[in-house]
Design brief:
The complex is a heterodimer of chains A (about 110) and B (about 120). With about 110 residues, chain A is an all-beta fold. In chain A, strands 2, 4, 5, 9, 10 and 11 form a six-stranded mixed β-sheet that branches. In chain A, strands 1-3-8-7-6 form a five-stranded antiparallel β-sheet, with no helix packed on it. In chain A, strand 4 and strand 5 form a beta hairpin. Chain A is globular and about 40 Å long. The relative contact order of chain A is 0.34. With about 120 residues, chain B is an all-beta fold. In chain B, the strands form two sheets. In chain B, strands 2, 4, 5, 6, 9, 10 and 11 form a seven-stranded mixed β-sheet that branches. A four-stranded antiparallel β-sheet of chain B has the order 1-3-8-7, with no helix packed on it. The mean pLDDT of chain B is about 90. Classes of the chains: A mainly beta (about 110), B mainly beta (about 120). At the A-B interface, strand 4, strand 5, strand 9 and strand 10 of A face strand 4, strand 5 and strand 10 of B.
Chain lengths: ~110, ~120
């Protein structure tokens, strides 16, 4: 299966920390991406994990456990501009030469002052 | 300007009409993708292309046609538009399709908001 589960919506306070979880049941994938999408705009790349563990990138960190089918995105020192949807996307092989990302429906993050 | 562009940005068309959405990228990326995004759904892949003259179906190809005669262009045609095709359409490109770290993240165009009446 290719089910990807993320919470539909989360609310957090400016300056705080929030963790957005993603669980999936897809097999044969090569990595997992997180993208950010502001309302009315295109998704933009945030992070990529190809190995298990934590990848840190400024205020954002992403964790992956392939054996558990689990990832999370950690956002620190939240700012109002972080209000957006966050899309989890495991990647899988279509064949030896092709590759696609499987997209979750996204988590809408609302930041309050 | 460098990057990936889509046109038109907004389109209203009638049921049964043919409409073509354009996508152009200046990076010479091998891979290009067409997605649709609807409320409550993740991005759903319509068609993708690994190189010029190579295209393949994604998850939801019915009612759509693509072509890729040049690396930089990947138009999507709705042959006879239906109301169920009302959606936001995103084109994306990536350098590689082999899952190589750092080379296959997808870059998205700004999207086309299509309404079929």
């Amino acid at each position: 299966g290719q089910n990807i589960d993320q919470p539909t919506e989360m609310t957090a306070t400016e300056g705080a920390i929030v963790q957005i979880n993603c669980t999936y049941q897809t097999s044969g994938f090569n990595g997992l991406f997180w993208y950010q999408q502001h309302a009315g705009e295109a998704p933009t790349f945030l992070s990529y994990n190809v190995l298990d563990g934590l990848e840190e990138k400024g205020r954002f960190s992403s964790f992956l456990s392939r054996s558990k089918g689990y990832s999370y995105l950690l956002l620190k020192e939240l700012q109002m501009k972080d209000s957006a949807s966050y899309l989890c996307a495991p990647g899988g092989s279509l064949s030896d030469s092709n590759y696609q990302l499987i997209w979750g429906a996204g988590t809408k993050l609302i930041i309050k002052p | 300007d460098a990057g990936i562009t889509q046109s038109p940005r907004y389109k209203i068309t009638e049921t049964g009409r043919q409409v073509t959405l354009m996508c152009h990228q200046t990076w010479s990326h091998s891979y290009m993708f067409w997605y649709r995004q609807d409320l409550g759904h993740g991005l759903r892949l319509i068609y993708y292309s690994a190189a010029a003259d190579i295209t393949d179906k994604g998850e939801v190809p019915d009612g759509y046609v693509v072509s890729r005669s040049k690396t930089e262009n990947f138009p999507l045609t709705l042959e006879s538009a239906t109301r169920s095709q009302t959606s936001v359409y995103f084109c994306a490109s990536s350098e590689s399709g082999r899952g190589q770290a750092g080379s296959y993240e997808q870059y998205f165009g700004p999207g086309t908001r299509l309404t079929v009446t």
